[in-house]
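Action item from last meeting closed. Structure (251 res):
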C-alpha cells in the first residue's frame, strides 16, 4: 500500500512571522491524520523558523526549489546541502518554474539527481498546458517530462521519488481536472513510462499526487482514484481547508 501524501506549496507567500502563525493554527489538524504523510513547503526565508516549530512532529518540511550544483558562483541560488540543513523534501520542476524561469526537462533531471545525492525526497512536477491539452498532446508532453526528468536514476533512487501531476491549465484557475481524467493520465502517462524505465515494482510503488485547484470539496474525488495517492496543494494549503484535504486523504 502506498501511504497517502499531501504537500502544501505556499509559493511566494507569507513572511516569517505569518508562516509561524499559520503553522501554529494548522499544526494540531495536520498531526491528527496519522496515516497521511504531510509536508509544508514555505518560501526559503521561513525554512529555519518552521524547521524549529516542526521538530518532534510528524510534519515534514520542503523547499520549493534548489540548484543542481553543490556550490559556486550562482548568485541568488540555493545549493542542495543548504536545503538539506532544514528540509526533508524539495519541489522540482513546478510549472511556474518552467514557465517563468526557463526550467527544462534537462534541468529538472539535474535537480532530481542533486536532491537525491544529499538525501532529499524530490517531488517532481509534470503536466501539460491548456494549449497542449486542447491539441491532444497530453500523452506526449507528460510522458516526455517523466522520461527525461527521471532518466539515469538507479532503481533505488527512483523508488524515493514522488511525482505530482499538475495540469497547468488547472493551477490557480479553479478549473480542476476530473478524478477519472487525472487518474487516466497518471496510469497511462506517468506509471507506464516509469515502468519502462524502472520496472513495474518501482512504478506501482511510486506515490503520484494530483495538483491543480484542489479543495476540501473536491479532494475526495481525486483520492478515491486507484492511481492517485494524494495532492500537491497551492492556495488551499494556507487555509484551514488544508486540514479537510488531509482528512480526505486519510479516508
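Sequence:
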Amino acid at each position: 500500500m502506498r501511504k497517502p501524501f499531501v504537500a502544501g506549496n505556499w509559493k511566494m507567500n507569507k513572511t516569517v512571522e505569518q508562516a509561524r502563525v499559520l503553522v501554529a493554527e494548522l499544526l494540531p489538524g495536520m498531526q491528527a491524520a496519522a496515516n497521511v504523510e504531510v509536508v509544508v513547503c514555505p518560501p526559503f526565508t521561513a525554512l529555519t523558523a518552521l524547521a524549529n516549530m516542526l521538530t518532534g512532529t510528524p510534519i515534514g518540511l520542503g523547499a520549493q526549489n534548489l540548484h543542481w550544483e553543490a556550490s559556486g558562483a550562482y548568485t541568488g541560488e540555493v545549493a542542495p546541502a543548504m536545503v538539506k540543513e532544514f528540509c526533508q523534501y524539495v519541489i522540482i520542476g513546478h510549472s511556474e518554474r518552467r514557465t517563468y524561469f526557463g526550467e527544462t526537462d534537462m534541468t529538472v533531471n539535474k535537480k532530481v539527481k542533486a536532491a537525491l545525492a544529499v538525501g532529499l525526497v524530490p517531488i517532481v512536477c509534470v503536466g501539460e498546458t491548456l494549449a497542449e491539452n486542447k491539441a491532444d498532446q497530453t500523452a506526449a508532453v507528460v510522458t516526455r517530462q517523466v522520461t527525461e526528468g527521471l532518466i539515469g536514476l538507479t532503481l533505488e533512487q527512483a523508488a524515493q521519488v514522488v511525482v505530482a501531476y499538475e495540469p497547468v491549465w488547472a493551477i490557480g484557475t479553479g478549473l480542476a481536472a476530473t478524478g477519472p481524467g487525472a487518474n487516466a493520465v497518471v496510469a497511462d502517462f506517468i506509471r507506464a513510462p516509469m515502468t519502462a524505465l524502472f520496472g513495474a515494482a518501482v512504478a506501482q510503488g511510486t506515490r503520484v499526487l494530483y495538483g491543480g485547484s484542489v479543495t476540501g470539496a473536491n479532494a475526495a474525488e481525486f483520492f478515491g482514484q486507484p492511481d492517485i495517492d494524494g495532492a500537491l496543494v497551492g492556495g488551499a494549503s494556507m487555509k484551514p481547508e488544508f486540514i479537510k484535504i488531509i482528512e480526505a486523504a486519510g479516508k
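Note appended to the action item: The chain has a mean pLDDT of 96.
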